[in-house]
């Protein structure tokens, strides 16, 4: 099988000519579904495009973020922390934070793409938001402890992971302390044209059914009031986490060993797991594949 990281210049040519990167990447090794590697490469090349969209469509983002903030407020619960999964360039997170009636103590966001987080940090500075922490991470191995974030939400970030819906739901539920708010493709509520398009792109399906199979308490499921593409309608699914605990102080955990990470000079390290993770331009790189075996890091 061809190493896709070795053909980035070729992929760049396809991207610059307006080609579909994901479709090309799937064809390289004859895949039928999107791999994490495909998603990473595709999103990394697109870094910056979401900020461009928001700046060209400010009214859309104003309304979209206002509606999301309203979903949080309607939960009628105190929340000290929120996290956007697949935060991208932080366009949604930044604007949602600006719409909340009461500021949260901890705002988190992670994405598989380092470049998108890099753009996201710049966008947060432009919006004068200083209480948000962005990092790279894998939604199937989130570098946080159980029950660590009061509200965990998505904005079409589970979307390209068709076939891995159950694993994604389980991992998001693990780190959730109070509520999961999912804004994802409304496959079951879409028309035939929308379903055909979602199938061709490998989008997620049956999130509500799988959530119920997993024993989760689904308290809301409906079409969201706003979407950017009629062929990709959005549904909002709200899941209440039962037996939640008091919010914990935010700290990173190793995504492989599930042990606490301590910050060093340019890295995070788990003394129990003996793995280190780099920090590049103030961005913690916490994907499992970023791990460095460093058994003697503290010897000198």
Order of strands, widest sheet: 3-2-1-4-5-7-6
> What's the level 1 CATH class of the largest domain?
Alpha Beta
State the major sheet: 7 strands, mixed
Strand element count:
12
Query: What is the mean predicted local confidence, pLDDT?
Result: 92
Order of helices and strands: HHHHHEHEHEEHEHHEEEEEEE
Derived structural class: alpha/beta
What CATH architecture of the largest domain would you give?
A: 3-Layer(aba) Sandwich
In CATH, the topology of the largest domain is named Rossmann fold
Proportion in helices: 25-40%
Q: Give the N-terminus to C-terminus distance in angstroms.
A: 42 Å
Tally of DSSP helical segments: 10
Using the CA coordinates, give the radius of gyration: 19 Å
* Count of all domains: 3
Low-pLDDT segments, ≥5 res? none
State the fourth-level CATH superfamily of the largest domain: Vaccinia Virus protein VP39
Q: DSSP strand (E) fraction?
A: 15-25%
Shape: globular
Can you tell me about this structure?
It is a single chain. The longest helix is centred in the N-terminal third of the chain and has 17 residues, at 58-74. With 300 residues, the protein is an alpha/beta fold. The chain has a 7-stranded mixed beta sheet, sandwiched between helices. It has 3 domains: 4-51, no CATH class; 58-240, Rossmann fold; 251-300, N-terminal domain of TfIIb (Single Sheet), CATH 2.20.25.10. The protein has 10 helices and 12 strands. A hairpin with a 2-residue loop joins β10 and β11 (283-284).
């Amino acid at each position: 099988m061809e190493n896709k990281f070795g053909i980035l210049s070729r992929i760049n040519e396809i991207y610059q000519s307006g080609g579909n990167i994901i479709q090309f990447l799937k064809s390289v090794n004859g895949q039928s579904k999107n791999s994490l590697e495909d998603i990473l490469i595709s999103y990394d090349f697109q870094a910056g495009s979401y900020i461009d969209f928001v700046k060209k469509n400010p009214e859309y983002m104003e309304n979209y973020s206002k509606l999301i903030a309203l979903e949080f407020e309607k939960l009628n619960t105190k929340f000290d922390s929120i996290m956007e999964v697949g935060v991208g360039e932080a366009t949604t997170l930044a604007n949602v934070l600006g719409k909340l009636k009461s500021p949260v103590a901890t705002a988190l966001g992670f994405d598989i793409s380092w470049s998108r987080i890099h753009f996201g940090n710049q966008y947060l500075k432009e919006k004068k938001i200083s209480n948000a922490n962005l990092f790279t991470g894998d939604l199937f191995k989130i570098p946080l402890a159980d029950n660590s974030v009061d509200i965990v939400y998505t904005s079409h970030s589970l979307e390209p992971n068709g076939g891995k819906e159950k694993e994604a739901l389980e991992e998001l539920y693990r780190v959730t302390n109070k509520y999961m708010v999912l804004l994802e493709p409304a496959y079951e509520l879409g028309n035939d044209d929308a379903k055909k398009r979602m199938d061709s792109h490998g989008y997620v399906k049956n999130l509500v059914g799988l959530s119920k199979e997993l024993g989760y308490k689904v308290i809301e499921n409906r079409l969201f009031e706003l979407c950017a593409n009629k062929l990709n309608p959005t549904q909002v699914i709200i899941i209440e986490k039962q037996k939640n605990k008091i919010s914990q102080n935010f700290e990173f955990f190793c995504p492989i060993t599930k042990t606490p990470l301590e910050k060093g000079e340019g890295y995070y390290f788990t003394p129990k797991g003996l793995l280190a993770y780099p920090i590049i331009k103030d961005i913690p790189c916490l994907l499992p594949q970023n791990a460095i075996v460093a058994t003697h890091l503290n010897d000198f």
